[in-house]
Specification:
The complex is a heterodimer of chains A (381) and B (105). Chain A is of the alpha/beta class. In chain B, strand 2 and strand 3 form a beta hairpin. Chain B is globular. Classes of the chains: A alpha/beta (381), B mainly beta (105).
Chain lengths: 381, 105
């Protein structure tokens, strides 16, 4: 393999580029990123960056010296319009063509929004650094009333950051009990309780009917007709894998780029990594996956076939209101949940999920140390 | 010097976090004491809450690993070292030497 193009320059793309060099690839490496920024870390965007305690420079995923060592050509602020893996070529949106024997698809995911959001100032999503800069600018203008749509982790973290900024925040969530599909009902309720602890109103089981305002948002109308005044609306209702540019490439797409368990697509010279990759029917949107899974996929790319299928237990964390939530493993309805340490009502506890006597998952609120022990044991399974 | 705790309050395999000018973590590795800055150089996490394996501590958030002897990270995502500090024991009490007493590292 003489030339590899990495399409996507965030954590998964950078991790893949590092893995290529670490695993001995000495050919031409091109990294193409839609954003104009060098690779940066997204998790702090909803937390410290929104609070203004860190700036863009603190987000860099790699030092300049390390990027130089990768000896790659960086095409930033560029998108790929067409990939022809069979021909070993791709075409950029500006019409330029590149030869590549191998391709790494790392284009991530795009936030869903609400109908009409594109016509109203003050309505935000949060995925990129530019999104975060725009949102922060709106949040520090006077004392805006904020409505967050969606009580998942992004919505919850944004709400917590807004509360820390002293703003009046309401969260609107269509599901009756968000987080329950992952954490189970009881533990989801404990995590959601953090909002009320900190004076943030959470309305569950009600959808959004529409956005109000002309030119600038003035409120949110709920599906039941209620109206919530809002100067800033943040939409956190999930993401869609960024695969639109792959239509016509011949690669099977199904909730992401369809791959085997090793990250290899139907073509052995094309792999997918991070949020955009659907590995044997499972797509994961977590930081740790984007950091680790590329190592395995790149090994398969360089081998020319699937030799490895590294699967660690999914792990994610979330920081809300000064509480660190950590979760690892897979839960199913019917798993037994047991409090192993602490008290749920004190918002500091460790819960383990058990199935047929085996630990299958763990949830911690401000209990990092015992959580890590269980997480490592899960990874070894 | 700052008194950290009694030596018998820090058994092997355990760590304690104390607030000096910055938070510092003190570890007992099979009877050897080590002190490093407590905050992971990668992101806001307490290394005293990390997973201790020999002379290495794994950050509880992203599994970055640091060598307690040097403060150097041994793997990504951490890229910057954390500072190490001198500790000593007198009359069964662990003392942390202030960074100012360390001279030039």
């Amino acid at each position: 393999m003489r030339s590899v193009a990495v399409i996507g320059a965030a954590l998964a793309g950078l991790s893949a580029a590092r893995a290529l060099r670490d695993q001995g690839f000495q050919g031409r490496l091109t990294i193409i990123g839609a954003e104009s920024h060098r690779p940066y870390d997204r998790p702090p965007l909803s937390k410290n960056f929104l609070l203004g305690t860190i700036g863009p420079a603190d987000l860099a995923l790699a030092e300049e010296s390390e990027l130089a060592e990768l000896d790659a050509e960086w095409l930033l602020g560029q998108t790929v319009s067409h990939l022809s893996p069979g021909l070993g070529a791709l075409e950029l949106a500006d019409g330029r063509r590149l030869r590549c024997d191998g391709a790494v698809i790392a284009t991530g995911a795009t936030p869903r929004s609400l109908p009409g959001a594109e016509f109203l100032a003050g309505v935000h999503v949060l995925r990129t650094l530019d999104d975060a800069v725009a949102l922060r600018a709106d949040l520090v203008q006077g004392s805006p009333r904020v409505v967050v749509v969606g009580a998942g982790f992004i919505g919850a973290e944004v709400a917590a950051s807004c509360a820390a900024l002293g703003l009046h925040v309401t969260i609107v969530e269509a599901a009756p009990l968000p987080l329950a599909p992952v954490l189970g009902q009881e533990m989801a309720a404990h995590c959601l309780g953090l909002h009320a602890d900190h004076g943030v109103r959470l309305l569950c089981g009600v959808g959004v009917g529409g956005l109000l305002g002309q030119g600038r948002v003035t409120g949110v109308e709920l599906a039941d007709g209620r109206r919530l005044p809002a100067d800033v609306v943040v939409v956190g209702i999930g993401v869609r894998p960024s695969t639109g540019w792959l239509h016509g490439s011949g690669l099977p797409l199904d909730n992401g780029v369809s791959c085997d368990a090793g990250g290899v697509t139907r073509l052995p010279n094309v792999i997918a990594v991070g949020d955009v990759a659907n590995l044997a029917g499972r797509r994961v949107e977590h930081w740790t996956n984007a950091a680790e899974q590329p190592t395995v996929a790149v090994a398969n790319l360089l081998a020319g076939r699937t030799l490895h299928t590294g699967r660690s237990a999914p792990y994610f964390w979330s920081d809300q209101y000064g509480v660190r939530i950590q979760f690892a493993g897979h839960t199913r309805p019917g798993d037994e949940v047991r409090i192993a340490e602490g008290e749920p009502d004190s918002r500091s506890f460790l819960a383990v999920y058990e199935r047929e006597g085996r630990t299958v998952a763990a949830l911690a609120l401000n209990r990092a140390k015992p959580f890590t022990r269980i997480r490592r044991a899960l990874a070894a399974v | 010097m700052i008194a950290v705790c009694r030596l018998d309050e820090l058994p092997p395999g355990e760590a304690v976090r104390l607030l000096a000018d910055v938070p510092v973590a003190v570890f007992n590795v099979d009877g050897e004491l080590y002190a490093i800055d407590d905050t992971c150089s990668h992101q806001d996490a307490s290394l005293a809450e990390g997973y201790l394996e020999g002379c290495f501590v794994e950050c509880p958030l992203h599994a970055a690993s640091f060598d307690l002897r040097t403060g150097r990270p041994t793997c990504l995502p951490a890229k910057k070292p954390v500072r190490t500090h001198r500790v000593s024991v007198a009359d069964g009490v662990i003392y942390l030497h202030r960074p100012a007493e360390q001279g030039v590292a």
